[in-house]
Amino acid sequence: MHINPDKCVACGNCTYVCPMGAIYIDPAIGRAKVNLDECVECYACFNGMSQEHLNPTLVRLMRKAFQFMRLRFDPEPDVCPTAAFEPEELTWPRVVRRAFSDPRVPHESTGVEGRGTEEVKTNDVSGRVRAGEVGFTIEFGRPGVGVWMRDIQQMAWALADAGVAFEKRNPITSLMTDVPRGTLREDILNEKLMSAILEIKVPVARTEEIIRLVWDVEKRIDTVVALGVGARCADSGDEEVIAPILERLGYHLERAKTNIGLGRVTNSAAAAAPLEAVKQ
Ligand code: SF4
Ligand code: SF4
């Protein structure tokens, strides 16, 4: 993202809009600037603010005149008064930032917007996680924090060393040059994203081992990690296998979502497995 210094009047409105805190007023030039290291190309500034087309020279003059009279001229808070944002044509590898950070842009590899995966939410039709298995979503980053691809790499290597299977319909997996080893393309490692998700599944017996592994890697990487656990319910509608393991590890469980299997089965291999309710 680029701010045109000829248009910017340094009103500061956009500094509150950027979820990564990447926009600042540079006192040396008296204009807003984007810290390109921290900018994740989410386009919240460009798309989230109304763009007015006031004359920048006139606005600066008015601001100075009002300042002289100890008054203020400030535009409405959700407006860039001079339409100073000018998105740049993104090329590889920077375009990866936008794919994972602008929720309106679908991922090429999966056709899904945002982080690019439906996760286990559609397990009733996708059958990603079967009976006897547990699916993990390892979610990195948040607005205000973000995540570097190189940190996702650390987690992917650790998981691959543990011999887990990465979900194929996931955009991070599609960026791996060596899926069994969990190795990501080298040219994207210095890209920062708002958020991304690694997905794996393992036999239920490995639940605790994988959670402890994620805890361990999380301590070494510079972001926040949220762990999602997906499993099939018993016929009673309750989940009685993974839940006790999670509670023993200190998690307090509440029922979040229950898919009830009303969808059409899209994974033919999974069709052979009984369709049970899925608890997340
Ligand atoms: S909102 Fe527009 S004019 Fe105001 S500081 Fe940001 S880029 Fe500059
Ligand atoms: S594109 Fe997003 S991260 Fe970059 S400056 Fe704009 S709001 Fe901030």
Put simply, the count of helices is 10
Report on the biggest sheet. 6 strands, antiparallel
Low-confidence stretches: 270-280
| Count of distinct strands | 14
Structural class by secondary-structure content: alpha+beta
Hetero ligands? iron/sulfur cluster
Shape: elongated
What is the terminal-to-terminal distance? 37 Å
How would the blueprint of this fold be written?
Elements: H1 13-17, E1 23-26, E2 31-34, H2 44-48, E3 50-51, H3 56-68, E4 79-80, H4 95-101, H5 123-126, E5 133-140, E6 147-148, H6 149-161, E7 165-166, H7 171-174, E8 176-178, E9 183-184, E10 192-193, E11 196-203, H8 207-218, E12 225-232, H9 242-248, E13 258-259, H10 268-271, E14 278-279
Parallel strand pairs: 3-4
Antiparallel strand pairs: 1-2, 5-11, 5-12, 6-10, 7-11, 8-9, 12-14, 13-14
Helix pairs in contact: 6-8
The structure holds iron/sulfur cluster (2 copies).
One iron/sulfur cluster binds near residues 43 and 45.
